[in-house]
């Protein structure tokens, strides 16, 4: 049985702290392992990317690319993954498949700009989808088993 007064860390897992600046005989006296003089011997110095006055690498290299403020980031879900959720009983086949329903079923974890259905995998359940986007192959597969796809207008605008 483990007692609180018997608990100890594994041997060698923690070292005692080095006492610096305590005399020449300690081996870490005088400059306390910091070398001598200068900015880096002082406290509070962190010069990341400074190259002694030479133009730093991050400023010598050209800038590239741009950020498109109108880009959309969809949650991409394959048909096979949706079929798995239906078979596991996490997704109600009678209710429409929406972003909220997929989050509740645990198919997606975080709502982004909407859901895009992709056609990878097999689907046998007849489902009504209300999503932002869907690939042509996904729409064909859904309609083949008697389901429907309604694209939400907010995603198009």
Structural description of this entry:
By secondary structure, this protein is α/β, with parallel strands linked by helices. The protein folds into two domains: 21-62, no CATH class; 75-156, Ribosomal Protein L15, Chain: K, domain 2, CATH 3.100.10.10. The chain has five helices and five strands, in the order αβααβββαβα. The protein has helices at 57-60, 79-87, 99-105, 136-144, 153-156; strands at 75-78, 115-118, 128-131, 133-134, 148-151. The strands form two sheets. Strands 1-2-4 form a three-stranded parallel β-sheet. The model has no long low-confidence stretch (mean pLDDT 90).
Could you list some keywords that capture this structure?
Ribosomal Protein L15, Chain: K, domain 2; elongated; alpha/beta; 2 domains; 157 residues; 5 helices; two-stranded parallel sheet
């Amino acid at each position: 049985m483990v007692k609180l007064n018997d608990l100890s860390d594994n041997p060698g897992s923690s070292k005692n702290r080095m006492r610096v600046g305590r005399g020449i005989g300690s081996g870490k006296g005088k400059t306390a392992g910091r070398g001598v003089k200068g900015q880096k011997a002082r406290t509070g110095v962190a010069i990341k990317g400074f190259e002694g006055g030479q133009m730093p690498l991050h400023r010598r290299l050209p800038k590239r690319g741009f950020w498109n403020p109108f880009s959309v980031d969809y949650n991409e879900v394959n048909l096979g993954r949706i079929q798995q959720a239906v078979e596991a009983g996490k997704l109600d086949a009678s209710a429409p498949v929406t972003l909220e329903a997929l989050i509740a079923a645990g198919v997606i974890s975080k709502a982004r700009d909407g859901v895009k259905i992709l056609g990878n995998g097999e689907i046998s359940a007849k489902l009504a989808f209300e999503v932002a986007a869907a690939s042509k192959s996904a729409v064909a597969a859904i309609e083949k088993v008697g389901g429907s796809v309604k694209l939400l207008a907010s995603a198009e605008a």
